[in-house]
Structure formats: C-alpha cells, structure tokens
Amino acid sequence: MAVAAAGYAAALTAAYEAIEAQGDRPHTVGMLLLLGTWLVSTMHALGARQRLYPPADPSDQRNRRVVEAARYRRTLRAEARRIALEDRGLAHELRIGRPDFDPRAYDDGGLIDVNHAPPQALRLLPGVTPEIADRIVRCRAEHGAFISAEELALQADLPPRIVPDLAEYGLFLT
C-alpha cells in the first residue's frame, strides 16, 4: 500500500507539472495522466477493499443482535427488581414475576416470583423440572417464603447447578 501511495503521488505530481507547463500538448498530457491516475487508483482501492475490509458475516450481525437483546432483558430484570424492592404495591400492580397473570403490559425480563408463582410458572425457570417445581411449592408451603436462591436451594434440596439461574431469573418477594 505504501508503494502504491508513492506511485500515485508521483503520478499526480507529474500530472500537475504537465498541466502547469506552457502549450497545448503538455496540458492535454497532464489531464490524461490525472484522469488515468484517478481511474487506476479507484480500481486499486476497489480491488484491495475486500482484502483489507472483509464483508461482515450476516451471522455475526444476527449474533450481535441476539447478544444486545439478552443484555436488554438483563437490564429489564434489574429494573423490575429495583421496582419490586422499592414499591411492592407497584410491583404487584405491574405483575412483576408473575407470568401466570394476564394481561401483563410490563416486561420484567422474565422474572419469576418464586414465593408466589404457581408450579407451571416455576417450570419456566431454567433447570426447573416439574418435579423440582412441585418440591419448591411443597417446601414453600411448609417453611414459608424464601429470601434468596441459596436459601431455596438449601431448603428444597435443589441441585447446585441451577442456583445461578435461580438467582438471575428468580424474584423472592416476601
């Protein structure tokens, strides 16, 4: 690229020198040299572009959009948690953590209120099978509300692998 740039600079300098020279013929030669340099440099740039700037893979763009959507849902969960902690009445009215209620206009990012949701809603939590959902409901009835995913895992004897997902998607309103 540096050699090409030096060649184009030399051709442009020669073209301007020829244009500035006296007489008709040098002026025409200079204009032709200027036009030729412009055409050759454009073709070179178009040819080199593919190597220097490979086209974006459509799957990369799709993946970026999916990642952005996941990050956005994470911010929705954080905002819904903030509302639930600051104003339980508003959280109840917005039906935060209750996918079993219809209609729900507020998007809470997929939170599930572990202390109040029915078993079919608990099954929406990652890693929660129908058996685990029933175990959570039984344990909730026996011991009362849970305050964290860790307490839930301990009380209901849940597999440790699902605790991070319970912490991310579970809401523990008392």
Automatic annotation (TrEMBL):
It holds the Pfam family HHH_3. Gene3D superfamilies: AF1531-like domain (1.10.150.280). InterPro entries: RuvA_2-like (IPR010994). This is Helix-hairpin-helix domain-containing protein. The lineage of its organism: Bacteria, Bacillati, Actinomycetota, Actinomycetes, Streptosporangiales.
